[in-house]
Fold each of these.
Amino acid sequence: MEAPTYDRTLLALRQLGADILAIPVQEDGIDVDALARALEGDRGARPTLAHIIPNFHNPAGVTLSLDKRRRLLELAGSYGFTIFEDDPYGELRFEGESLPSMLELDDSGVVVYASSFSKTVCPGVRVGYLVGPQETIAGIEQTATNTYISPSMVAQAIVAEFCESGAIERSIETVKTALRERRDATCSALERELPDARFTPPEGGYFLWVELPEGADVDALAAAAKDRGVIFVKGTDFLLEGGLNTFRIAYSGVGPDEIAEGIGRLAEAYRGLSVAAA
């Protein structure tokens, strides 16, 4: 898994007792050199699955480069693991160059691709899809049937009608416009109000990862910010270890004015903690 990674996937795999190897995320996606080193030799790791969020990563906000996509496919082919390409945000690019999915680049059947309509139609729909080798998908379908008998056919019918009508394209453009405006407001507010913060502006998606100076107490900051009506997710929720000075901002739910106000309150909380520590 990537480090950091989506907290719910991390939680689910830990509850299943998975043996998890965490590989750091860089500004252009997972550190494939570190992964290659972990796989090398007779004593190297032999993973079954690599969970990769390629576009506008949750929580890191970064996008996996084309070179790294190709390198991951080579490693998966050489070492016999499946790449789970978790891509609910791929349609929500509002700047930069669109990149092919690893599924599109895959000629060895090592990729299972997942996406969702929850980020392009509306969050409450909870309809997604998988694409991959027929045998693999059939096994997943059987597990799903054994778990909950049937998916929500009403929600699926709504999504199908929405797509067939052409409304999905208009919806994507509406969402992208709103997200870009809110991303810009978040970055501007952080630069203005919290100059200690380090972050990579995402080229799309919903999330921004913030790193404060070493020694910053994000646990205390979360409590102080909550007292001021601001909530974020601590970085430790997305990692097996470390990340004490990091957190994730989801900028999608509020408008630019509220974002500016929220970041201002967050900065006020941070300054208050810094003064107390001094």
Note: The mean pLDDT is 95.
Amino acid sequence: MKFTITLDRDEDGVWVVECPAIPGCISQGETREQALENIQDAIALCLQVRAEQGIPLTVETRQVEVVA
């Protein structure tokens, strides 16, 4: 499965990564590469827990256009 993720740095320089299609699926890393590896593990674990609990694996995400 492929998922869209967001990747950002916090005020301490730590990379924070999130998978919007899986509520609460967030990880981090000291480097960008570490954060990307960590979110893969987090996604797998989140999917496993959601399946065990009978919760839908993902929620719908969409892109919208905002005119500013």
Note: Strands lie at 6-9, 15-18, 26-29.
